[in-house]
Write a structure and sequence with these properties.
Pfam families: LacI, Peripla_BP_3. The chain is of the alpha/beta class. The protein has three domains: 53 residues, Orthogonal Bundle (434 Repressor (Amino-terminal Domain)); 129 residues, 3-Layer(aba) Sandwich (Rossmann fold); 137 residues, Response regulator (Rossmann fold), CATH 3.40.50. 39% of the residues lie in helices and 15% in strands. The protein is built from 13 helices and twelve strands. The strands form two sheets. A six-stranded parallel sheet has the order 2-1-3-4-5-11, with helices on both faces. A six-stranded mixed sheet has the order 7-6-8-9-10-12, sandwiched between helices. Helix 1 crosses helix 2 and helix 2 packs across helix 3. The N and C termini lie far apart (67 Å).
Length: 341
């Protein structure tokens, strides 16, 4: 029961459990986005009917007039972890989306948990899902409801969903790796984050392909985005000791990069003379480090502008695009990867 004594909304997860299928199968069966067998489709619809599942709780609002609100779901669980300055990347994105919506006189509502009954039926004309996970359950829920959705970055398991703006990582990551190679790096360690999204997947895929092309042995490890500043040096120091230490490190999270530089200095290693160092996001941590750290800027302002344009186009009845829109991150080369002046 909800706070007003009514029945709480049934979720797509409950329909999937009743029908004995995956959440994505329910989404595809109800939305018609992918071919599903007639028997499975019938089982899903029967389960939805038995549970009273409404795939679009906003239907009344959309029939009688739009709410004037667009939802925003920020998927990375560590997006707001730690102190505010650690969330610079996501502050840029959320702030830019809010500003763009304001420019277009459209309201924006942040949805913290789609499965929370308190927000499950929030009136939204559409929803922007930022940095979804592979096989994202929140995205599947929204698609199952038939709600207009735009994603910032793709669900890695559904890379071709057309209403999306994606970052074209491979050429930028390759350019960074080629730069490290030109600076003499032959043993490059990639420290990826642990969240299963495109930002972690695509650079890792590009790195592995680059190592194969260069006939270099790949070296990868994971650093959770939720680590505290005290955790990072303890985990990184063993990687920096001994004769097999890397001569370059590419770390996903930019606020970890200065901590790695400090850990290297504690072992007598100088950046960039003994260790080249780069990050796959840019922030004040990278820009103000000594030396400043090479980083990949995810251009969140441009992502926000394009995502809002796509959402407003979709709500106005525009034709479905042939595929996702692509933007290119910007590589900021700084002193941490430049040797010899």
């Amino acid at each position: 029961m909800d706070a007003e004594g009514g029945k709480r909304p049934v979720t797509i997860r409950e329909v999937a459990e009743r029908a004995g299928v995956s959440i994505s199968t329910v989404s595809h069966a109800l939305s018609g986005r992918r071919p599903i067998s007639a028997a499975t489709k019938a089982r899903v619809r029967e389960a939805a009917a038995e549970l009273g599942y409404d795939p679009n709780p906003n239907a009344r609002s959309l029939r009688t007039g739009r709410s004037g609100l667009v939802g925003l779901i920020l998927r990375p669980r560590y997006a707001v972890a730690g102190t505010p300055d650690r969330a610079e990347t996501f502050n840029r994105l959320v702030g830019s989306i809010a500003t763009e919506m304001l420019r277009h006189k459209t309201g924006l509502i942040h949805v913290p948990d789609l499965h929370d009954p308190a927000v499950a039926s929030v009136p939204m004309d559409g929803c922007i899902v930022a940095h979804p996970y592979g096989g994202d359950t929140a995205l599947a829920e929204l698609l199952g409801r038939g709600l207009p959705v735009v994603t910032v970055e793709e669900d890695p398991e559904q890379p071709d969903l057309p209403w999306a703006v994606r970052l074209d990582y491979p050429p930028v990551v390759e350019a960074l790796l080629d730069h490290l190679y030109e600076q003499g790096a032959r043993d490059v360690l990639l420290l990826s984050g642990t969240e299963d999204n495109a930002w972690n997947r695509r650079p890792r895929e590009t790195y592995l392909a680059w190592c194969k092309r260069r006939t270099l042995p790949p070296r990868t490890a994971l650093l959770s985005e939720g680590l505290t500043p005290g955790d990072v040096p303890e985990l990184v120091q063993p990687l920096l000791s001994g004769p097999d230490r890397p001569d370059a490190i590419v770390v996903a999270t930019s606020d970890f990069a200065p901590l790695i530089a400090d850990a290297a200095a504690a072992q007598g290693l100088r950046v960039p003379d003994d260790l080249l160092l780069a990050a796959l996001t840019d922030s004040e941590h990278a820009r103000t480090s000594t030396p400043p750290i090479t980083a990949m800027d995810l251009t969140h302002e441009a992502l926000a502008e394009r995502a809002v344009d796509l959402m407003l186009a979709r709500l106005s009845g525009a034709e479905t695009p042939d595929g996702p829109a692509f933007l290119t991150p910007e590589l900021r080369l700084r002193e941490s990867t430049r040797r010899g002046g």
